[in-house]
Amino acid sequence: MEETNALFSIGPLQVTSTVVSMWAVILILALVSFLATRRLKEIPGPLQNLLEMAVEKLQSFFADSLGQKHMRKYFPIFATFFIFIIVCNYSGLLPGVGHIKGMAQPTASLSVTAGLGICAFFTTHVLGVRERGLRHYAASFAKPLYLCFLMLPLNLIEQFVRPMSLALRLYGNMYGEESVTENLYEIFPIGMPLIMNVLSLLFCLLQAVVFTMLLSIYVSEAVEEE
Known about the structure:
mainly alpha
């Protein structure tokens, strides 16, 4: 289960280790973004070159599911989801980070992944309404019309299940990976930590890819005319 002990309070609000970890991730991302973009050059330096390569890879990845037109339009949204999730995932590899150790890994907290799922839900439908108009977008949930009495409730249920699925998948995988790793460390303290850290690098990347890939598919379905 998640640890809910507060580190300190701000008035009536309790600040947990999960919140502190998220603040740290946001601060680091803001700082890196500032340093990388304050002096852009035609001949990039090491940091700018690395970030430009990362952006190109992400653009290629999202173009496969969204198409070039929608990818260019909404790339900042999907890149934000991906970068935030992957940095949160990788934060769990730092010494002293983890629900079992003390400081929480953000994406191993259901409250954080639920928040991401809610953001994904509103992102999907806001973009769908923006691209197709409220009337046409709402009507798409009742198609085909001769089965609207059946399809409408099923489609609406599916839309609310999707963010829950995104949240539970990310939380379950990250919290489970953290718990399994800690137990293996206790059983095999020599050699196993290095092996698990290498595997975790791939696992954390995979979870960020799965979340944003599914979100891009949902958005693609929402914005495309049938």
